[in-house]
Amino acid sequence: AAMRETRTKKTKTVCTFCGVGCSFEVWTKGREILKIEPVEQAPVNSISTCIKGKFGWDFVNSNQRLTSPLIRKGDAFVEASWDEALDLIAKKMGQIRDTHGSNALGFISSSKMTNEENYLMQKLARQVFGTNNVDNCSRYCQSPASWGLQQTGGIGGDSGTIEDIAAAGLVILVGCSPAEGHPVLATRIKRAHKLHGQKLVTFDLRKHEMAERSDLFVRPKQGTDYVWLAAVTKYIIDQGWHDEAFIHQHVNGFDAYSELLESFTLEFAEKETGISKETLIQVATMVHEADGTAICWGMGVTQNVAGSHTSGAIANLLLVTGNMARKGAGAFPLRGHNNVQGASDMGTMPNIFPGYQPVTDGDIRAKFEKAYGVSIQAQPGYDNIQMLEAIERGELRGMYIAGEDMAWVDANSNHTQEMLKNVEFLVVQEIFLTTTAQFADVILPGTPSLEKDGTFTNTERRVQRLYKALEPLGDSKPDWEIFMELARRLGFAWNYAHPREIFAEMASLTPFFSGCNYDGLADWGSFHWGSPDGENTPVLYLNGFNFPDKKARFALFEYVAPVEFPEEFDLTLDNGRLLEQFHEGNLTGKVAGIQDKLPEVFVEISRELAEQRGVETGTFVRLESPYGAVKLKAIVTDRVQGQTVYMPMHSSSHETAVNMLTGNIFDVKTHTPAYKQAKVRMQVLKAK
Ligand code: SF4
Fold first, then answer.
1. What does UniProt give as the signal peptide span (predicted)?
2. Mean of the pLDDT values across residues 155-174?
3. Is 13 in the pocket of ligand 1 (CB under 6 A)?
């Protein structure tokens, strides 16, 4: 062992942070992580990385890692053996199921876990415990985008690759800030814009880096993107600029959609969105003139009451102009977590099996019942939000949360934490003692990506292999092994020797993945799912849309206006990421070099508002919403305008976390919390 530790080992891995899916070699010596070395063979990023991928790995060896199972004794946690902890879980969850039925249990999976682990999480819920109550964190971010795309093209994922974004003549960014959230993807756009004449338009409340670089930057009123999209589409049709041949051949429902667009005149849109008619015409003209339009969107679109409908409206605009089913164009919801696409692909959702096969379909259910040897409920289960509601009703009693800090990432943290307190038996599988874990009865120590084998799927539906670089720290275990040992205790003979076998089982049940296996993924190999016959499919729909008649459908969903708040909440609260941080900060918060740069959370306010209220950079302010309050320093900037303020989301403190302010308002189709529809009032506390 001593000899081994003096050797430097190089292991291929895939980044654990964002959905761009950069891969690189990690150099280790013993447990020491020496460096991250990007290499040319990496299919997404080649020799690029961002600060998180390059320097964000201290958390792996943090002395705050959980290294042993913990069982609650009164107010304290005591260390336990794996046998004690797993036996207790099997007993308690088994008892709840036997006394109150399978649906008294709920499972929440993680987009930080591998595909194989997500597959096992849904199998644990459905086969071992007999419930469809399983969900993942795409409920908090991208479910509306997937929904809108499923309704129109049939597949809930990016329609092409990052190369297609770079090759498009026009890129429109709506409610996303890739320079901060998806840095390496942003560099591709920056290069195409600078060197290849690509046009760039940004719609956002905040003038972030990409907005600064754009040919046109537009600030719509909060939550009104649906309206400008509909108006621009209508204008294009009125001018006869739509792609008639494409629509005729490939899309159903044009007449009904044209009718729905009737009321979306430029005048109406100007009034509703605050965008001038001239600007709307300019956008329509740019789409008309571009050789290929790619629309990228993020949570500025999805985290609204109209998130799903707006995602459908984006797809509609692309269909009207023939910008789907071709290279260098298309629909690109930018996935946040490294494996948020994969988590849903693997069926950790209440209504679908792996590969988006509906649980309500009798034939599909029969296939899984046969494979799993149990009967499976025909009704979809509860999503994350419905699980919390079921806790409130006393209906959901046992919960298993893997790698999700719900206490902070769900909207309205005060309420979420109250609900977590009320769960009769809570298991949390984590790498740190997060706030959510502090509510647990049993805590199981999982491992981060560097300590496991498996696959991740990036925003382009690209599956990539990661290899184990380090042994699990202390007594922690890769999550797939934990699920396997629990299933065995409940009488199911799960005997996977390696994640390869789990992937093979999943692929055998899932048409999209039937052509993918570990041999093809070896080293720098990758695979884009997306064709029903399991072929590698970088660009979707080249052989027809994913419906029986091979035609897309226009989404016929109405505009849902933003909810109204009482007048005293006079400021619009926008929120999002910073480049250096990741989400609530559980990982990047433990990286000294990153933390030093950003010691405190802050709120950005406009010069105008600063003047009105006598605030300077450094002044402490209190923000209050109908749901809670925070206290933090203000920064006066040009990035926000007027009565809009902006808070980064990277805090897990009752003093400064943005979700102390967000509320129980949801997207009408998917229950994604409308984090972006928040309003606050501001009290100036003291000057710096
Ligand atoms: Fe990781 Fe995303 Fe940065 Fe690439 S862009 S290194 S995937 S965080």
1. none
2. 96
3. no
Distance 69 CA to ligand 1 centre (A): 31
Instruction: Name the residue with the closest Cα to ligand 1, atom 3.
Output: 50
Pocket test for ligand 1, best of 16, 22, 59, 594 (most atoms within 8 A of CB): 22
C-alpha span between 555 and 32 (Å, rounded): 52
**Tell me, what's the pLDDT at 659?**
86
Q: How confident is the model at residue 2 (pLDDT cuts 50, 70, 90)?
A: very low
pLDDT at 106 over 80: yes
Give dist(CA 314, CA 303) in Å, integer: 15
3-state secondary structure of 495: coil
Q: Which of 56-65, 522-531, 586-595 has the lowest mean pLDDT?
A: 586-595
Distance 409 CA to ligand 1 centre (A): 21
**Backbone φ and ψ of 463, nearest 5°:** -90, 130
Checking if the pLDDT of 583 tops 60, the result is no
Q: Is the pLDDT of residue 440 over 80?
A: yes
What is the complex's ipTM, to 2 decimals? 0.99
The CATH number assigned to the domain holding 582 equals 2.40.40.20
Q: Which of 180, 182, 464 to mutate to test the pocket of ligand 1 (most atoms within 8 A of CB)?
A: 182
Q: Which of 25, 45, 587 has the most ligand 1 atoms within 8 A of CB, as the residue to mutate?
A: 45
pLDDT one-digit tens code per residue, 198-216: 999 999 999 999 999 999 9
Are the CB atoms for 348 and 121 separated by under 8 Å? Answer: yes
CATH number at residue 375: 3.40.50.740
Q: Which domain holds residue 41?
A: 2-61
Could you tell me if residue 547 is inside a domain? no
Is residue 49 in contact with ligand 1, taking CB distance under 6 Å?
yes
pTM comes to 0.93
168 with 282, same domain: the answer is: yes
Task: Give the rounded distance of the alpha carbon of 460 from its chain centre.
Answer: 13
Ligand 1 midpoint to CA 182 (Å): 7
Q: What is the DSSP code string of 271-337?
A: HHH---HHHHHHHHHHHHHSSSEEEEE-HHHHSSTTHHHHHHHHHHHHHHTT-SSSTT-EEEE---B
Cβ of 52 below 6 Å from ligand 1: yes
